[in-house]
Each structure stands twice: as C-alpha cells, then as structure tokens.
Amino acid sequence: MTESIYAAKPWTALLSEAQLAPVHPAETMVHAFRAAAGRAPDHTALAYFDGRLSYREADELSDSVAGHLAAEGLEHGDRVAIMLQNTPHFVLALLGAWKAGATVVPLNPMYKSGEVGHVLKDAEVTALICSDRAWESYLRATAEAAPSVRIAVTACELDLQSADDPRVLGFERLPAPGADDRASDLVAVARRGLAAPDGRELSAADTALISYTSGTSGSPKGAMNSHGNIMVNAERQRAGHPIDEGAAYFALAPLFHITGMVCQLAACIANAGTLVLAYRFEASVVLEAFAEHRPAYTVGPSTAFMALAAHPEVTRDHFSSFKVISSGGAPLPPALVEKFRDGFGPYIRNGYGLTECTAPCASVPPEHEAPVDPVSGTLSVGLPGPDTVVRIIDEKGDDVPFGDQGEIAVRGPQVVSGYWNLPEATEAAFPDGELRTGDIGFMDTAGWLYVVDRKKDMINASGFKVWPREVEDVLYTHPAVREAAVVGVPDAYRGETVRAYVSLRPGAETEPGELSAYCKERLAAYKYPREVEILTELPKTASGKILRRELRSPR
Asked: Ranges for the AMP-dependent synthetase/ligase domain (predicted)?
C-alpha cells in the first residue's frame, strides 16, 4: 500500500518545541486530580460565585461520593449518568463516579424525558446524578422506566455558594430528600466523610465517558472516550499553551460537552488550575466572572463570543487577563475574529474536533494566526498535533491532493475505539481505527486544515454544490448580522434553493431583501440566498452549535 501523502505531517514544521515534545499524561483523570491535590492541596480547585473548594476539599468530598455509590451497590464498570450544569456538583459527581470505578455518561440538562430515557436504557445506566428540580419534575418517572437504574443522587445547585445570583440561580430550594426518598442528596453524601472504595482503580485503557453525540445528524450514538483519550488531549493543551500552573480557567463551554470536559476541566486539572464555574451561559454573569477571577483561558462556541461582544457593558478590560481564548463546537467566522480583536484585543484561536476524537484534533498554536483561504474565504481551523495524522480522502478512502476537497479523516491517540454497542456503526466510522468525520475540508501544503462543511449539509442548487459555511461567512460580514445559518430547501425548479436564517445585533436594523442583495453582490448567482428570514434567536445545542436540522424542518 502506498504511504499517505499526509503521513509526512507537514504541519510539524510550524509547531514549537513545546508542542512537538512527547507528552507523558497521567493515566486517568483521577490520577491527574490526585497529583494536583498533592502539589497544591490548598489551592482553589473550583470557584462557584462566592463559593470555593480547594483541591484537598474536592478530593475528600469526591472520595465520599465514591464511597456512597459503592455502598449503594455500584459495581466496577457500571455506568453513572450525570445531568448537571456547570457547577462544583458536576465535578464532585464525575470524580466520585470514576473513583468508584464507573464509566460516566454525561447528559445535556436540556434533554427532555424521551431523550434521557433513551440514553439511560441504551447505556444500561446504574446510577443517575441530576438536579433535584429535574428529578422532581420528570426524571424520577424517567428513571423508574429504565430498569437498570438502581441508584439516584440529586443536587441542589444553590449549594456550595451563597450569592444566589437571580440571573442564573433564580429558583427555589426544594426540601431535602427524606429518609424514605429514593434519591440521596449529593452534598450531604459528599460531607459524610466516606472513603473511596478499594480495588476500583482505573487505567488509561478504561472507558471514562460514553459521550452521546449531539444528534445534529441522525440518532445520538455513544462514543467511548477512554481515560487515555482524555488525558493525552488535556496534556497537549497544558503543554502547548503559555499558561502558568495554578491559573484560572473559565468554564464557558458546558462540562457535559467534550470540549468543556477536555479543554477546560481536564486541562485545568493537569495544570493544577482553578476552574471558574457560573452555572450556565449568561453574558452579564460571564463578564462579571471575567472581571473577578481574571482567567487566563477559556474556550467556547462562536455564538458565545458574539453574545459577549454584543453586551452593552462589555469593555476591553474584561478580556485583558486572557493568555489564550479558543473557539470550538461551532464554526468560527473570520469576520467575528477580526471584529473581536478590533473591539477587545484578544485573537480568538480556532480549533476543530469531534466527540469521537475527544475534542481537538487541530488547533491554532499560540505562535500563529490562522490563515484565510483566499479562494473560499474559509478560516483555517488550525494544525494537527505531532502525534495526529489528518488526511483528506475521496469516497474510496484514498488521499486527495493538498488543496483539494474531500472528507476529513483522523488517526491519533485521541480517537475513540468506537460507539457503545454499535459494532456496524463503529466499523463504518472507524475503519482500521481511523475516524471518518463526515466533514468536508481540505489541507494546504503547509498543513493548515480547513473545514468546509458537513457532508450531508451540502446544498444542490440546479446541479451546483453550495456549502452553507461559505454563504454564512459572507452574511457575518454584514454589520447588522449577529448569527447566521444557511440551509437548502426544496425548490420545484432548482431542486434545492438557498435559504438563510439570521439574528441581528442589538439595535441593528435590516430587511431580508437587503441581506439577499448583499450576498448576491459577493457570491456566484447560484449561491446567494433567495430567501432570508430574520429570527430573534437561532436554535442551538447547549454547546452553542446552531441546529440547521431544526431550521430545515417545516415551520
């Protein structure tokens, strides 16, 4: 077999010595956390409004959670579902489950009963840890319908802080679980001082997470992220960024999402840093946390940075402490990068990854800025790491030349072994261990990777291919546009036609016809949107990814 033209890894010529150096990650997240607790036991591990937990305290509290789960009958290798917002409770539950030898199934708190029920049954979940409000409103009944769920723990997310910020914590405290209640209270359990069970040690090869894909295309599948997958990417993040040990990391991305889990939580722990949590994204709360905690790092979707930039009280000082700001989980328009830098100073560093490759497989190093392809106007998502091989392939799986478009394929230590209980889907998506992403892109001769769009989002207008990203990038250059999404809709004459949905910046005004004409001036005739609809907000996943699927549905 002929060696791949991408095997030479041209991108390594652009990586620094620190980025090229071999990494020696901790075996698991638990090992990394205990190492950080040993180095800096009194350093703040978790900051949650006015609440603080040191590494020593978080270690002891999560030990007790592990002891409780084991006492309730959790076995080594069982699955624990965690459905919580960005709070210390999530981290204590996560560490506790791992210390008990379990695999964690992170759940989106926005899931409805049917979605949760599917995951509980599919992953054969033994224990469910969720908010008390969700438990009382519908999860009690959902768990009862899933025969494998034998253990329930609830969390009042007003605990571990006293600020009770009404912008995000404006809910009432429920009564604590009674003696006959099926669910135990997480904080009460954590404060019992139980020891973690012996004989439950996990290894790098063990499955840390069954991460269900967002379902933006098809039914969610559970990617099996090993501890080794997580730790190699976390250590690459730590080693490749100029961030001092112990620095503050702000959790902008949700922790249940693989980006938040790896690039925020795991990288922060590897660096013995302070993870700043603010329940969920609310622009004014986030900006106040930036001013108070002076974080050095955050990562989030482009939509979050759009919202922060549009806030009436935002200033350059809010971002002055950052050493690195990364974007992931949603496409990053070049216009936003420049508007953000002009307005606030930091350069947002693009990145690319999937749940199946445990967050990043390419990113923009701190020493570089991402080039923009002069033909398509696409912003590069960055360079692969030294131990990763990214190929661009055709329908047969063969290399296409540098500069040509094809499907992005990834091989490296961050790629998962497959999907939970789906051998056929695993075989199709991971032939010979290489991830076929379903994303269309290309790579230039220097090794910069560009993502054009999802394979199945391509629009066929009168036989011409239209990639939504190209049209969206043009819309983002319009001064009135805050968010944009482009989809193909049925057309009797053209087969499909291009429709754009946009939301506007605060105080901005424009008309659909004006936006259509704006694109017509800048795009080929078959590409510009014949139809434009202005919405207050575009539908998104909890991680900030705009859901084109919902926009394609009949309205």
From this structure: 33-420
